[in-house]
C-alpha cells in the first residue's frame, strides 16, 4: 500500500545546501556543530570506512532482497527481522521492504537471518566488520562535535554509544521501483517509501546506493532532496541528541520517496545508548540560569514510548517541561 503526496522537485546537481564535512580535517569540528544546529543533518567525506566493506554488505543485502517473498517472510519478526510495507506496529505503511537487526556486537538475535543465504557466514562477517567500522567513525564524529562544543572530556558523547551494552540497531531498506508513479494513472504524484519521522536514538548513520529518494525537512517546513552519493555517509541528529544539547541541535524530520524506475538500497546504523542511560541536557551546555527543556528519562523509557507512537508523531512532546 502506498501513500501519495504532492510532487517535489529534485535539486540541480551541485546546488544542494546540505553541509559536507571532511572529517579528516580536525578543524571541521566547527562546521559539524553548525550543521547539527542548522540542519540536524550532514554528509561526511574522507571517513575511512573501507569501500570494500560497504560493497560486500550491499551485495549481500541485494542477494537477500532478491529471495522469493515466501523465504524472506520466514525471518519476519518484531522488532528484529524482515518486514514488508508495514513500518512499526501502529499502522504505518510505505513502499519498502527491510531487515532490522540488533547491531550490538555478538548479538544472538540476528543468527536466523543470514541462514537463508547461500553463504550465511559471508553476510555475518560483512555485517560485523561494517558495524565495527561505522561505529568507530560515529565515535570520531561525536568526539569532533564534543570538541566543537568546547566540552571535556572528549568522549562525553561517544562513550554513550560505545559501551558494551549500548542499544544500537542496524537496518537495511529496499525500495523497489514503483509502478504506481505514472503520469497517466496518478498524475505523477509521489509515493512514500518511508514516511516522515525523526529517529529516536542519538545519531543515525546512513549510506545508500546511487538512487536518490531521501528528503529532509527544514524548520520552515520545506522538503529538500538529498542527492545520492554512494561513497559518502549521511548523519542525522536523533531525538536523544536534541535532548542532550537542550534543543541546540535539532533532530531532523526526514522521509523517503519511492522511485519509478530504480531500486534504492540503504543501510542505516542507529547509534543508541544503553537501556539504563539517563538522557538529560549536559550540564556543561546549560548557561547560568538556563533550565532543561525536558523532563529526565532513561533511554528505555523513551524507546518504549517511541515504539508505541506513529511514525510522524512528535515523540519528544511528551517529555517537554511545561513552562508557566
Ligand atoms: C512507527 C514506528 C517505526 C519505528 C518505531 C515506531 O513506533 C516509531 C519510530 C520508528 C523508528 C524510526 C527510526 C528507525 O528506523 C526505527 C528502527 C526506530 O528506532 O524508530 C523505526 C521503528 C521501527 O521501524 O520499528
Ligand atoms: O532508507 C532511507 O534512506 C532512510 C530510512 C530511515 O529514515 C529509517 O530507516 O529510519
Ligand atoms: Fe530515519
TrEMBL record:
Which EC number(s) does the record attach to this protein? Answer: 1.14.11.13
> Transmembrane region positions?
none
Cite the Fe2OG dioxygenase domain residue spans from the record: 165-273
Question: Which keywords are on file for this protein?
Answer: Dioxygenase, Iron, Metal-binding, Oxidoreductase
Q: In which pathway does it act?
A: Hormone biosynthesis; Plant hormone biosynthesis; gibberellin biosynthesis
Q: Which InterPro entries match?
A: DIOX_N, IPNS-like_FE2OG_OXY, IPNS-like_sf, Iron_ascorbate_oxido_reductase, Oxoglu/Fe-dep_dioxygenase_dom
Which family does the UniProt entry place this protein in?
Belongs to the iron/ascorbate-dependent oxidoreductase family. GA2OX subfamily.
Q: What is the purpose of this protein?
A: Catalyzes the 2-beta-hydroxylation of several biologically active gibberellins, leading to the homeostatic regulation of their endogenous level. Catabolism of gibberellins (GAs) plays a central role in plant development. Converts GA9/GA20 to GA51/GA29 and GA4/GA1 to GA34/GA8.
Name used for this protein in its record = gibberellin 2beta-dioxygenase
Amino acid at each position: 500500500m502506498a501513500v501519495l503526496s504532492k510532487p517535489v522537485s529534485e535539486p540541480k546537481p551541485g546546488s544542494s545546501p546540505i553541509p559536507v564535512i571532511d572529517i579528516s580535517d580536525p578543524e571541521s569540528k566547527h562546521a559539524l556543530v553548525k550543521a547539527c544546529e542548522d540542519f540536524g543533518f550532514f554528509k561526511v567525506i574522507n571517513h575511512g570506512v573501507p569501500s570494500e566493506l560497504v560493497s560486500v554488505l550491499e551485495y549481500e543485502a541485494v542477494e537477500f532482497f532478491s529471495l522469493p517473498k515466501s523465504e524472506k517472510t520466514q525471518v519476519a519478526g518484531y522488532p528484529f527481522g524482515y518486514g514488508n510495507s508495514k513500518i512499526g506496529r501502529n499502522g504505518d505503511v510505505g513502499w519498502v521492504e527491510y531487515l532490522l537487526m540488533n547491531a550490538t556486537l555478538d548479538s544472538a538475535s540476528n543468527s536466523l537471518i543470514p541462514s537463508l543465504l547461500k553463504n550465511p557466514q559471508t553476510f555475518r562477517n560483512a555485517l560485523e566488520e561494517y558495524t565495527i567500522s561505522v561505529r568507530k567513525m560515529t565515535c570520531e564524529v561525536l568526539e569532533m562535535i564534543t570538541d566543537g562544543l568546547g566540552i571535556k572530556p572528549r568522549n562525553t558523547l561517544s562513550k554513550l554509544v560505545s559501551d558494551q551494552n549500548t542499544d544500537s540497531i542496524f537496518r537495511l531498506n529496499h525500495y523497489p521501483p514503483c509502478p504506481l508513479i505514472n503520469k497517466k494513472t496518478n498524475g505523477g504524484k509521489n509515493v512514500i517509501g518511508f514516511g516522515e519521522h525523526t529517529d529516536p536514538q542519538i545519531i543515525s548513520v546512513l549510506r545508500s546506493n546511487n538512487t536518490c529518494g531521501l528528503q529532509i525537512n527544514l524548520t520552515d517546513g520545506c522538503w529538500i532532496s538529498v542527492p545520492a552519493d554512494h561513497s559518502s555517509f549521511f548523519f542525522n541528529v536523533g531525538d536523544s541528541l536534541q535532548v542532550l544539547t537542550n534543543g541546540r541541535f535539532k533532530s531532523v524530520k526526514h522521509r523517503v520517496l519511492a522511485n519509478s524506475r530504480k531500486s534504492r538500497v540503504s543501510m542505516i546504523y542507529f547509534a543508541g545508548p544503553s537501556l539504563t542511560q539517563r538522557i538529560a541536557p549536559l550540564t556543561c551546555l546549560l548557561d547560568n540560569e538556563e533550565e532543561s527543556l525536558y523532563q529526565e528519562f532513561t533511554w528505555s523509557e523513551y524507546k518504549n514510548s517511541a515504539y508505541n507512537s506513529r511514525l510522524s508523531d512528535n515523540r519528544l512532546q511528551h517529555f517537554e517541561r511545561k513552562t508557566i
